[in-house]
Fold this sequence. Notes:
The protein has 378 residues and is mainly beta. It has a single domain, classed as Tachylectin-2, Chain A, CATH 2.115.10. 1% of the residues lie in helices and 48% in strands. It is built from 1 helix and 27 strands. Strands 20, 21, 22, 23 and 24 form a 5-stranded antiparallel sheet that branches. The longest helix has 4 residues, at 326-329. The chain starts with 6 loop residues before the first strand and ends in a 7-residue tail after the last strand. Keywords: Glycosidase, Glycosyltransferase, Hydrolase, Transferase. This is Glycosidase. One of its GO terms (molecular function) is hydrolase activity, acting on glycosyl bonds.
Amino acid sequence: MSGFSVDRLVFGPDDVDLSRSPxxxxxxxxxxxxxxxxxxxxxxSGGNLLMMVRIAEALREPVHGGHVRxxxxxxxxxxxxxxxxxxADTSDPRKFEIAGFGWRVMALTSLSWLLPVELSADGLEVxxxxxxxxxxxxxxWQCYGVEDARISRVGDRFLMTTCSVSPERxxxxxxxxxxxxxxxxxGIVLDHQNKDMLIFEGLIEGEYWAQTRPLGQLFFAxxxxxxxxxxxxxxxxxxxxxxxWKPHIEPAIRxxxxxxxxxxxxxxxxxxxxxxxxxxxxxxxxxGVEPHEIVGKxxxxxxxxxPERPWKVxxxxxEPLLEADVGLTRPLxxxxxxxxxxxxxxxxDAGDHFVAASGEAxxxxxxxxxxxxxxxxx
Length: 378
């Protein structure tokens, strides 16, 4: 258990009406909600909270007639692609790998789209589900889905980064809005396999800042005795307009050598300017992954970054702020396909506490009220 006074699941697979899905009626195969999770979150002008929930819509029978099938957007419609089973590794229920290319190639058994879910100001009640404003693939660059929204408010603009998946590239795409209700697609802003892009909620010396997390198959070693170890880390980038991004030269948040719990790290919530642990700075909630089973154990950690030089960490904790809670998901045990995963993706200031939104077990949306005095540096 987390120990926080408010910590519960507020939206899950059973709350999604697939008859109103963007995929409804496009092909003759039954689908179900594999997960309703990893919600980007922001506070609306009227005070309510908005979650942009990732809906992973999966085939009920991905294996059919000696083939494994993937859902794909194709020129305004959704189609099924069938791959011979003898060329596919289907050990992971979320995806399958295709042999014979000389490098890793995969396809998904589900396709993700984004569903706006409006919550009460405290995040604990669903006020409305806006199917008419769902965001779904609209081009070949996201033919396998739109995933993991993160929403930042910078001045009078709402900026939403998403991960768009396709054979062309695994890119970061940007949407913008004046009200968080009507979103405009602004294009690809980061190219292949740079995930977890989080735009700071405010400018620094007139520039937009963002956290990024480039992926790769090769990392160079830190020297023996270093406090860091090689692997995916959180970097920074700057932009004059939120569209054109330049990597910042200084390293930012790096995986710690002393703990396997942060063997791999990545961004969680958009950094917000606030005061915690007696200091003012950019509060960043991020995830650390400990190798375990298929996907690893995901936990939420935090760092406070310097308000003017955000590559400098003012305070952090090696103890997790949030961990997966089996008590929350016990009623959904029949739907579980991964365990030990909490992935915090949204945050809102609520006075003496923060409202944090997370994906729990890649299955449902979790809301936690985190008191500001809970941030105790290591």
